[in-house]
Amino acid sequence: MAAEYSSFVAIGDSFTEGVGDPDPGGDRYRGWADLFALRAAEQWPAFAYANLAIRGRLFDRIVDEQVVPAIKQSPDLVSFAAGGNDALRPGFNPVQLSTRAHEVVRLLKASGAEVVLFTCADITPHIPGIAVLRKRFVATNDAYKRVAKRHNAVLVDLWNDKAFEDPRLWSEDRLHLNTFGHQRVAYDVCEALGVEPDPAWSEPLPHMPRPRREMNGVQWAGKHLAPWVKRRLTGKSSGDTVDPKRPELTKVK
Question: Which regions form coiled coils (predicted)?
Answer without folding.
Answer: none
